[in-house]
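Re-running the complex after MR caught last week's input typo. The corrected sequence lines follow. Everything else is unchanged.
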Amino acid sequence: MTKYTKKDFPVENVRRFLEPGPIVLVSSAHHDQTNIMTMGGHMVMEFSPSLISCLIASGNRSFELIRKSRQCVINVPTVDLATTVVKIGNCSGRDTDKFFEFGLTPKAGTHVRAPLIEQCYANFECTLADAGWVNKYNVFVFEVVKAHVATSPKVPKTIHYRGDGEFMISGAETRKYRRLFKPQML
Amino acid sequence: MTKYTKKDFPVENVRRFLEPGPIVLVSSAHHDQTNIMTMGGHMVMEFSPSLISCLIASGNRSFELIRKSRQCVINVPTVDLATTVVKIGNCSGRDTDKFFEFGLTPKAGTHVRAPLIEQCYANFECTLADAGWVNKYNVFVFEVVKAHVATSPKVPKTIHYRGDGEFMISGAETRKYRRLFKPQML
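Corrected-run output:
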């Protein structure tokens, strides 16, 4: 697994890594329990405050840990972790300690008790900002209160889910359209 | 521009094209006005009914057309349309007829009055399912009521936005993790 050196990153700019749509790992903690889940559904809602809506099915062990602790960490894994990401999505925290089982390292955050996953490219510490659609749609709105991002590479090779066990791996990066943009519409 | 032949597609499976996170074009119509906007923020919320939440900033001309008509079409463009997608995102429907300006063909849908964009790989006809967060967050929840998808290629080469004028182009597709999946957790 890749070892990343990370630095603080502006929370208002996490769209850089989330808006392209990668599958992410969500880590949580409540009392003496921790868990990790694989999550494909998320959306950047505001830049400042940095609000992200997330779909967390109520059948997941993580649903209760996050609802009760009102915190989580959104971790962005890269393609070298793909097998682990799939396996995490296919077992339950009810009978598996996922950090131990998959050799992942929990790292203390600065703003939340939920552990960061060291092996991921980026870690976004989150607090629950709006629970209004939790019961209705399983949608949590989080505020990213602290972001840690790898210093290299500039952009991660991420994995994107199509459903039915199929993935797309992120491809080429381009800045060539940048000259067409008006700054206020970026 | 690529010319696609399309067929009906199951609405409960539009995640296949939306969950990987491409930037999309949203077309709308109200009375005698039509518009197109570029949208980076969307999330698959439920499969059946097929619910998608979308972020549409209230400053956009499309915001009012969609709020009033309670309909839109989510169109998935491919990389050959990238320049057009960027230009659409950088002008306003207040002073531009975007179909005419960018040589795009409006096509009649079967369930909504908003026009489909013929040159896009997929077109999802949507009706407004929940306006509860429109004023609070500019978030619209749509139900996909009809889906049209190109018969070829199997997966589109899509464009994914990083903010700041930078894009990621979708890369390799893989089914190699499929054997690790439990069907009920797909």
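None of the earlier attempt is carried over here. The radius of gyration of chain B is 16 Å. The mean pLDDT of chain B is 95.
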